[in-house]
Amino acid sequence: MQIRVGFGYDMHRLQKGRELRIGGIKLDYEKGLLGHSDADVLIHAICDALLGAANLRDIGYHFPDTSPEYHNVDSKLLLGDTMKLLREKGYSLGNIDATVCAEQPKLNPHIPAMQQVLAEVMAVDSSLISIKATTSEKMGFVGREEGITAYAVALIQKSE
């Protein structure tokens, strides 16, 4: 069995007048993340981790922010397409471990729903998706509530 690991990172600026979507769910908050797509930092970090593990470059390569096709797109579609790319290369998901860094809103109450939504999109068991939330203790752009970051590690495997 071939085992590979990938790492993903994403950040987006918070802005009034945008919906906040993290982990495939809409959160009730006064600001949303700014981006070409729906700017779901968690999904973007997971996509990059998966693509990196399979040596398939990165999310911007497959879903460029210069393409009108991806303007305001639901990032769950990008994650579904990422999983198709992996499966075409013969890989399956081992697990995901992800962390979202945000001062507000508090994410811990929403983690089970995020896990369930992501598992459905990826067609895997939710036990394979770990999501953690933290703050930056009021330091940096995350601490000043200017943006949100996400980090993800993905383990994939191929039977040979």
Automatic annotation (TrEMBL):
Q: Where is the 2-C-methyl-D-erythritol 2,4-cyclodiphosphate synthase domain?
A: 3-156
Gene Ontology molecular function terms on file: 2-C-methyl-D-erythritol 2,4-cyclodiphosphate synthase activity; metal ion binding
Q: List this protein's GO terms for biological process.
A: isopentenyl diphosphate biosynthetic process, methylerythritol 4-phosphate pathway; terpenoid biosynthetic process
Gene3D superfamilies to which the protein is assigned, alphabetical? 2-C-methyl-D-erythritol 2,4-cyclodiphosphate synthase
Q: Which cofactor does it need?
A: a divalent metal cation
Q: Catalysed reaction(s)?
A: 4-CDP-2-C-methyl-D-erythritol 2-phosphate = 2-C-methyl-D-erythritol 2,4-cyclic diphosphate + CMP
Q: Which UniProt keywords apply?
A: Isoprene biosynthesis, Lyase, Metal-binding
Give any Pfam family that matches: YgbB
EC main class here is lyase
**What InterPro entries would the database entry show?**
MECDP_synthase, MECDP_synthase_CS, MECDP_synthase_sf
Pathway connected to this protein: Isoprenoid biosynthesis; isopentenyl diphosphate biosynthesis via DXP pathway; isopentenyl diphosphate from 1-deoxy-D-xylulose 5-phosphate: step 4/6
Q: Give EC number(s), comma-separated.
A: 4.6.1.12
Q: HAMAP family, alphabetically?
A: IspF
Task: Return the protein name.
Answer: 2-C-methyl-D-erythritol 2,4-cyclodiphosphate synthase
Protein's organism: bioreactor metagenome
Task: Identify the coding gene.
Answer: ispF_27
